Amino acid sequence: MSRLSASSTDAVPDSDVAIRLRGVVKAYANGVAALGPLDLDLRRGEFVSLLGPSGCGKSTALRIIAGLSEASEGEVRLAGGGTARRRIGFVFQEPTLMPWASVRDNVRLPLTLARIARPTADRQVAAALAGVELSEFADAYPRQLSGGMRMRVSLARALVTDPDVLLMDEPFAALDEITRFKLNNDLLSLWHRLGKTVVFVTHSVFESVFLSQRVVVMTPRPGRVAAEIAIDVPDRGEAFRTSPEYAAYCRRASVALADAGRSDAAL
User: What is the pLDDT of residue 264?
Assistant: First the structure.
């Protein structure tokens, strides 16, 4: 297995770890091995992309971290112990909004389920909507919104509980390129402002390099870590997107992805 940066499992202090996966495997009753064994450490406040081909287990890993699916083998440890999964926000590939509810009520849903008092919930909803620039659309319904705006609502709903970890499963894959670029920029601004640990699943080399501090390249199914690439760029504006540095990182990620496919096929 090639490594293009220090391994995520190399001596990361427990106090710095938000999520730790050790020997995580997912296999289904029909014999399909979807994932693993997967070893991965995710640091507090880090933005990490899981990059790999469709079907390589990226989304499966995310669902296991969130507690939406059980690992067949291995261990998942989250900072905070048994209550940690209450501190996770999840943004799915589709916005999954309630069509009969307003934007405000869609964002309020996790707080309603948690029985948060209405005045407190109102403040948190207002802050979440302001954070994704949708305050003026609080009373609109999903059918009245563009695809990008619906995804913003989904992001606000994930952030309204102020989670420590934000898991994002290819949230911008279905959007046009202009909208996707804008949401990438806005997501980075949110991350800088809020300091969340973000795990972002994508099959786009370009998106992973633009967004991430670290790109984790995964093999085809069953997904394992093939390589890790540290993206040591503090400023990610439009100048970076069109820079030789960005192009070089994208080439490295593309080569790592191709190598992962070839080495896996040879096993």
Answer: 60
